[in-house]
Specification:
This protein has 436 residues and is α/β, with parallel strands linked by helices. It has helices spanning 18-28, 39-51, 62-72, 105-109, 128-137, 156-165, 217-230, 235-252, 261-271, 281-284, 298-308, 311-328, 357-368, 398-406, 418-433; strands spanning 8-9, 55-59, 92-96, 99-100, 113-117, 141-147, 169-173, 181-182, 185-186, 193-197, 210-214, 343-344, 349-353, 370-371, 380-381, 407-411. The protein has a domain at 32-230: 3-Layer(aba) Sandwich (Aspartate Aminotransferase, domain 2), CATH 3.40.640. It binds pyridoxal-5'-phosphate.
Length: 436
C-alpha cells in the first residue's frame, strides 16, 4: 500500500532500492571492508570494459575525479612555459554556465581560470557559436570541459573538431550521462579524458563516488599516482555515506510528510554530521572541504557495483517515464525536450521549460507533496553559490540566466511508479487548465 507520508520526490537518494539498503546495512557492520578490498579494482575494470576505454580510475566523487584529471594535466613545478606543456595556474578552462559549482570548483582549486560559455536554450548544452566567440576572445584557453546536461549528449562531432582545431584539451563531464551515446559512441570516450559521478542524484549512486576515464596511458599513470597520493577519506566519512541510504529508506522518507518529521530528522542528521550534505558550505565560496580530493573507499565501490549491475533496468525505466511525460505533455504550454537523431540520452531527468517554472515547483510541493526538480535556478547552482567567487559575471551568459528562471525537471528514477508519473501529469495539467 502507498505510504501517504512519503513524497513523490526527484531527489533524496532516488536510486536506492531495498537491495542497496540491505547491502549498506551489511557493510555497516563490517568496517574491515570499508577501505580495503578487491571491489575498487573490479568496479574500475567493469567500468572501463563497459565504456570500451583502456583506463578507469576511481575517486570519491566526480569533483575529485575532475580535480585529478586537471592536476594530472598540470605542469610539474620545474617545467617552464612552452607549447604543449602542462597546465599552469591562470590558464583558461572553457566550460558552460547552467551547471553546479561542483563542476567549476576543481578548476578553481587548481588556480585555473573558468571562462563561461553560454548554453543553448533548446538542449541545455554548450552553445557552439558562443564557444567559438569565447575561444577567440580568450587566447590562452587550454581546456574545454563539455557537460552532457541532464543526460543529453552534446554535439560531439562539432565539439571534437573545435577542440582539435584550437589545440584544446577536451574533457567530458559525464556526471549526468552514464549510458548516453552520440552516433553510437558512449559519452566519456570522445576526449582526452572524461569523468562520471555516482553521487546521490545521478544515473547510478553510491552517495559519493566517481571515476576518471581515459585511453591515454601516461595520463592514466598520473591518475593512479594521484589516487594513491590523495588516499581514502576517514572511517567516519565512510560511515556517514553508508548511513545515508539506510536512514533515508527506513526513517526519513516514510515519515517525510508526517508533521515534517522526516524532513526535520534529515536536517538534524546533517547538522549533527550523522549524514553528510551533498554540497559543503565551503564549496559555495569556491573553497575545498577536507574530504576532497580523495580516492573511492571499497565500501562505496561495493554499493556502486550493485547499482552498476542495474544500469539497464534503470535505463529502461527512465526511458519509459520520459516517453510517457513526452506523450502526455504534448500540445501544452510546456516546452518539451527534443532528442535529435543519433543522440541517445541517459534520460536522467525530464526537463521542460515554462514561464512559471518556479511557481509550479512551489505549488507541486506545497499543494501536492510532489518534489519536482529545480536544476538549475541560477547559472551556477545551488542558488546560494557565490557567483563572484566562481568568476561568473552577471549577464555574461543570458541563456543560462533565462533557463534558470524557466526550467523544471520531472523525475524518471526507479522509485517513481507509473501512478506517481500519472499524479505528476495530473497536477501539471490541472495547473495549465486553471489558466496559468
Ligand atoms: C554537471 C555536473 N558535473 C559534475 C558534478 C560533480 O559530481 P560529484 O557530485 O560526484 O562531485 C555534478 C554533480 O554534482 C554535476 O551535476
Amino acid at each position: 500500500m502507498k505510504n501517504k507520508f512519503k513524497p513523490i520526490s526527484i531527489s533524496l537518494s532516488p536510486n536506492v532500492e531495498k537491495d542497496d539498503v540491505l547491502l549498506a546495512l551489511n557493510l555497516l557492520i563490517r568496517p574491515w571492508k570499508w577501505k580495503q578490498g578487491k571491489e575498487i579494482k573490479i568496479l574500475e575494470n567493469e567500468f572501463a570494459n563497459y565504456l570500451g576505454v583502456k583506463y578507469a580510475v576511481s575517486f570519491n566523487s566526480g569533483r575529485s575525479s575532475l580535480y585529478a584529471i586537471l592536476k594530472a594535466l598540470s605542469a610539474s613545478p620545474e617545467q617552464s612555459r612552452g607549447e604543449g606543456e602542462g597546465l599552469k595556474s591562470g590558464d583558461n578552462v572553457l566550460l558552460q554556465a547552467f551547471t553546479c559549482n561542483a563542476s567549476i570548483n576543481p578548476a578553481l582549486w587548481l588556480a585555473l581560470n573558468p571562462i563561461y560559455v553560454d548554453c543553448n536554450q533548446e538542449n541545455f548544452n554548450m552553445d557552439i557559436d558562443d564557444l567559438k566567440k569565447k575561444i577567440i576572445i580568450n587566447k590562452n584557453s587550454r581546456v574545454l570541459i563539455i557537460q552532457h546536461t541532464f543526460g543529453l549528449p552534446a554535439n560531439m562531432k562539432e565539439i571534437v573538431e573545435i577542440a582539435e582545431n584550437n589545440n584544446l584539451i577536451l574533457i567530458e563531464d559525464c556526471a549526468h550521462s552514464l549510458g548516453a551515446s552520440y552516433n553510437g559512441k558512449l559519452t566519456g570516450t570522445f576526449g582526452k579524458a572524461g569523468f562520471f559521478s555516482f553521487s546521490r542524484d545521478k544515473v547510478i549512486s553510491c552517495v559519493y563516488g566517481g571515476l576518471a576515464v581515459t585511453n591515454d596511458s601516461s595520463l592514466a599513470k598520473k591518475l593512479l599516482q594521484l589516487q594513491d597520493k590523495f588516499g581514502q577519506p576517514n572511517l567516519f566519512w565512510i560511515m556517514q555515506q553508508l548511513l545515508h541510504p539506510i536512514l533515508l529508506y527506513f526513517i526519513i522518507l516514510p515519515v517525510y510528510n508526517f508533521f515534517n518529521l522526516g524532513k526535520i530528522f534529515l536536517i538534524f542528521s546533517q547538522i549533527t554530521h550523522i549524514l553528510s550534505k551533498a554540497v559543503h558550505w565551503k564549496e559555495k565560496q569556491g573553497e575545498m572541504p577536507d574530504y576532497f580530493p580523495k580516492a573511492l573507499p571499497n565500501a562505496l565501490a561495493i554499493l556502486a557495483l550493485n547499482q552498476f549491475s542495474k544500469l539497464d533496468k534503470f535505463y529502461n525505466h527512465r526511458k519509459k517515464l520520459f516517453d510517457y511525460y513526452l506523450e502526455k505533455l504534448k500540445n501544452t504550454k510546456f516546452v518539451l525536450p527534443e532528442t535529435p537523431q543519433g543522440y541517445k540520452p541517459s534520460y536522467l531527468r525530464f526537463t521542460v521549460r515554462h514561464p512559471n517554472a518556479h511557481k509550479i515547483i512551489y505549488d507541486a510541493w506545497h499543494k501536492e507533496n510532489i518534489l519536482l526538480g529545480d536544476w538549475y535556478t541560477t547559472p551556477i547552482a545551488p542558488f546560494d553559490t557565490n557567483l563572484k567567487k566562481m568568476h561568473y559575471k552577471e549577464e555574461s551568459c543570458l541563456n543560462a540566466e533565462i533557463l534558470a528562471e524557466t526550467t523544471l525537471n520531472l523525475p524518471t528514477h526507479i522509485n517513481i511508479t507509473e501512478k506517481d508519473a500519472e499524479r505528476i501529469i495530473e497536477f501539471l495539467k490541472k495547473y495549465e487548465s486553471n489558466g496559468n
